[in-house]
Amino acid sequence: MKTMIITGSSRGIGAATALLAAKNDFSVVVNYLKHKIDAEKVVRDIVDAGGKAVAIQADISKEGDVLRLFSETDRLFGNLHSLINNAGILERQMRLENIGISRLNRIFSANITGQFLCAREAVKRMSTRHGGKGGTIVNVSSLAAKTGAPGEYIDYAVSKGALDTLTIGLSKEVADEGIRVNGVRPAFIYTDIHADGGEYDRVNRIKESIPMKRGGTAHEVAEAIIWLASEKSSFSTGTFIDITGGS
Asked: What residues are annotated to the active site?
């Protein structure tokens, strides 16, 4: 079986991706920061269905934790084939002039530095240049990278724009080393992240402005992620799938 690491996969899009990955014959590493019970439930659901999974706690904004996450994966499963850079945070809706340096550091460490570190460790294991067998990286960005999220969370949008740049640059850097790097840009998805922004019911408030007149589900995003992570997208790299209901 191929091994997949999914950062931030105790809930929401990450959890949906973990469950779908297991159904597609991946051994799954369910990474989490704080939500241990939720992560263990994801693992239990996978194992009960006949799959293989393990939960590993790690703060991806810390290099030592990232190194431990990947070394534990090597020890338990080996043969890393896919990294899903899903972990990310946002904070309460706020205009730029009210955003302080501590918030910026939290957002950028979790949403840029962490993804960079995880991609680095994945490349070291997957690249044919280093004796690897190739693999895939899927970065979970956001439509905010294109809209800028004015009046709500420009800092989050900036971090996702950086992730898009990482996707493009890295895809070209490792294209001839057996690694494909792609991204998804979800928006208006029913997950708990909106509560972190201070508006749990945000999707229902704005759904009439979405061309499809509804919010999306975590499973719909997971389907796109798994397609990009699989051989079904074998000639795609440096590309993005927008999962936004037509917005």
From this structure: 156
pTM of the model: 0.95
Q: How far apart are CA 143 and CA 145, in angstroms?
A: 5
| Helix axis angle, 218-229 to 12-23, nearest 10° | 50
Choose among 140, 139, 141, 143: nearest CA to 210: 143
pLDDT at site 196: 62
CA angle 237, 168, 58 (to 5 degrees): 95
d(CA 42, CA 53) in angstroms, rounded, equals 9
d(CA 33, CA 89): 11
Lowest mean pLDDT, pick from 55-69, 157-171, 179-193, 223-237: 179-193
Q: What is the SS3 assignment for the chain?
A: CEEEEECCCCCHHHHHHHHHHHHCCEEEEEEECCCHHHHHHHHHHHHHCCCCEEEEECCCCCHHHHHHHHHHHHHHCCCEEEEEECCCCCCCCCCHHHCCHHHHHHHHHHHHHHHHHHHHHHHHHHCHHHCCCCEEEEEECCCHHHHCCCCCCHHHHHHHHHHHHHHHHHHHHCHHHCEEEEEEEECCECCCHHHHCCCCCHHHHHHHHCCCCCCECHHHHHHHHHHHHCHHHCCCCCCEEEECCCC
**Domains present along the chain, CATH in parentheses:** 2-186+219-243 (3.40.50.720)
Residue 124's alpha-carbon distances to 15, 50, 80, 238, in angstroms, are 26, 30, 10, 19
